Amino acid sequence: MSIAITTQFICFTVLSLVVIIGALGVVLLESIVYSAFLLGGVFMSVAGLYLLLNASFVAAAQVLVYVGAVNVLIIFAIMLVNKKEDLKPINDIKSRRVISTSICLTLLSLLIRVDLTNVWNLSSPQNSIGEESTIRIGEHLFSDYLLPFEVASVLLLMAMIGAIVLARRDVMSKDISTGLPVDQELIEKSSEPLLTNKN
Amino acid sequence: MEYGLDLEYSFNEFLKGFGLSSEIAHIIWLPLPMLLVLVAAVVGVLVTVWLERKISAAAQQRIGPEYAGALGVLQPIADGLKLLVKEDIIPAKADGILFTAGPILVLVPVILSWLIVPFGQNLLISNVGIGIFLWIALSSIQPIGLLMSGYASNNKYSLLGGLRAAAQSISYEIPLALSVLAIVLMTNSLSTVDIVNQQSGAGILSWNIWRQPVGFIVFWICALAECERLPFDLPEAEEELVAGYQTEYAGMKFALFYLGSYINLILSALLVSILYLGGWGFPIPVELIAKFLNLPINAPFIQVFTASIGIVMTILKAYLLVFIAILLRWTTPRVRIDQLLDLGWKFLLPISLANLLITAGLKLAFPQFFGG
Question: Which residue does chain B place closest to A55, by CA atoms?
Fold first, then answer.
């Protein structure tokens, strides 16, 4: 085994372990902040796997979009909504856990079956396009994948309009779900006066 | 890559002369440029800290450090040693793991980004194809480290500082990436080496600053904002937030933040010089000088001369920009958070979008000037 292959094998093992353990941590940990940070670690390791596959552009895009934007926004939201709230215990928690676990296991077995039955048409490492992949991705995005690419931008526009409507509460004077008049005060305003007599 | 020093090749040939296989020679070679760049970055930080102290003193009509070494040149080393031997304090109610991981996550991406900084045709760690895109991607990891340390400190000033830092770097990343995109459009490549080569045609006249003046200014503003330098140092505004996310840190962990911010400043200055000021290029093309002296461009003497001029020019341009950044820090007031976000979203973003559009149009209209 040459040194290059050994290095690649070690990197692959470490990265896959981080992905699996990290993903389990995201689901199983009690603290939502830890879950969010671990999610970032999982995204980074997936980017590392892309790098091992010679897809450096996809790896960098993964870091930029998932770690730099999605994960940062998740953490941001968690820290802004820092409400201490006693959650009600759910009655049928055990059956819910059984159901969700079984659904996840079914999906996993489906994926494993796809992996085993499909004939993977792999090109040899000598034929990999490597650095040229950036150009190929660009060509595909502007030819045969143009429609999905543009539809994705419409999706983003919809999300943006939704966010603006939610953030600017002067747009709607009534709450949609309860029908009560909406509190028009600033979100940042403290709900209790800052200088109350605390003795 | 017709000419230029190829140290890796020569080094490997030299080792093979001792009967080593090419693989082992490669492994011995690998850590050398990394160590060299790491040392260069740290020395660069020491120089910048000294410059900051001296220039700020001059701006405020003080003398500045003068007892540690001649003109106080040893002052940054003394600072570093002091931080090194200080007690490492983790506050009782802080989250130990995240508190330690935060500064590391801030520093590591910045150092990794030095991978793509070229000091000459072959004088960079790795000429990766995605080049400048790698830097944009890596610099987007930093806010996570800032949020992490802000949260883990369990201190409201730290949390506010971390949130501000994340908001700031998210909003300034977009115009930054868009102005880089205009350069990439002109170069037809993401590689930093290609970007510099594209500007090397006619010396100072072919530098990107003349073709991308708007992009240059947008990039510089955004780079300052990403480095959290004054006038954009809201995350650590000391009058409001004590020191932002750094409030609870002491000793080596604080030093990591300190190092990270200064390495980031030097990196940004280097990247501005690479993207807009011709990188390692001399204001007069070296080929012209060689032709004038009737020397072949491939002669060993000329190659060493070109390489050393390249390194000197890169560092000179970068430190000129660092000097401007330091002057800005000590002469401008801090912006408010709403002004900061207004500037980012309502001014820089539309301007950089328009710049990209105009660049694309000009590229189609004048392919010989704007890269065909």
Answer: B130
